[in-house]
Amino acid sequence: MNLQRDLLAFALYILVLSGLMIRFKQKRFSNFSLWTAIFLVLYFCMLEIQNKTFYILIPLFFFLLFCYFYFKEKCRLRNGWLLNLALISFMGYVVLITITASSLIGAGILGILLVLFLVTILFGLYAAIIFLIGNSFIVLRHESRKLPNLLTLILGLAIIALIILQVVGPKILPSWSVILLSIPTTIAIYFFVVFWNFLSISIVYQFNQPKYNQDYVIVLGAGLIGGEKVTPLLAKRIDRAIQFYRKQSQETLSPPQLLMSGGQGPDEKIPEAQAMREYALEQGIPAEDILMEAQSTDTLENMRFSKEIMEREKPAGYHAIFTSNNYHIFRAGMYAEEVDLKIDGIGSKTARYYLPNAFLREFIAVALMNKHIHLIICGLITLGFAALAVINYFFVG
């Protein structure tokens, strides 16, 4: 290994990083991430030049492919697959460049990844159980005991049941039927991969930064307290819209209109849009800057009916965004694309203790949108292992 080259590069990395940490105290994590990414790209490019190779084009191709499809249609699950493919190809590239260029820094990266992998294999499943069940008690202490708030508890108990099944099953079942125990495990692994894909692209989507040239900010409705007052969750959505409204007013002196979208549920005294309007008025937003869409009953209708209002108000064209809670904006964006509404979402913050439960709920909703594909794959998994069990029974056992 070229020790002098790598030590000099690492010293430069630490020197610049220290300067950034001192200069930008409020954005330490973002500056750390950005500089680390820039340093690695420059460092690996230097190795490529020295070796006269072009291996970096492989992960770069997948990353550019991800960028192309992401900025073309942001709310597509395929973008998650492309992003993870780019990350996997980059890891493969690090292995390749470490071997061919005798890179000490590359070896260090691989060492860190190996340690993380081993820790995940040894303790990840048990840590996940402890986290999920522990988080469920925190959620239940702060929220109502409705089914959507029990998802982390249900998942934690399901993992425990799966482990017990895999440990006890082979001891009490005939050998040929043990193969069938692989069915729930394989299906669980499949859904974990699908969830990881969903989570990856959902996190990326959080970094939307719309331009301050919007004509409308759609605020997606939620339930009301006592059927007439906005909930804390809904208030955060409105507050996020108001924050953008005021920022654009400062930047351009041309504020957007807030389009409150939400109909009246069977247990509500007034439409959600009306309660949202009253809340915005209390926050000092002028009445002429607030529009209402009071017919929708779900997120898809929020988008469809809001689009009709905006097209009626500005038939020549408009710019718009929407606000919701951060865990919800990706799925809401999927519904926007479904009605051919080309807008991005910005998210309001959610209590950290509630995020695991919230993302699980969103994942279930997104999975149900593609339930036919998942049912086919789960059916093929089941049929495959059932066939192996039959073969084992008749020809092996």
UniProtKB/TrEMBL annotation:
InterPro entries linked to this entry: Cell_Envelope_Assoc, DUF218, Rossmann-like_a/b/a_fold
Keyword Mitochondrion listed: no
Keyword annotations from UniProtKB, A to Z: Membrane, Transmembrane, Transmembrane helix
Domain DUF218 as annotated: residue spans: 215-364
Superkingdom of the source species: Bacteria
PANTHER family xref list: INNER MEMBRANE PROTEIN, PROBABLE PERMEASE (PTHR30336), MEMBRANE PROTEIN (PTHR30336:SF18)
Protein name listed in UniProt: YdcF family protein
Species name: Enterococcus hulanensis
Lineage: Bacteria, Bacillati, Bacillota, Bacilli, Lactobacillales
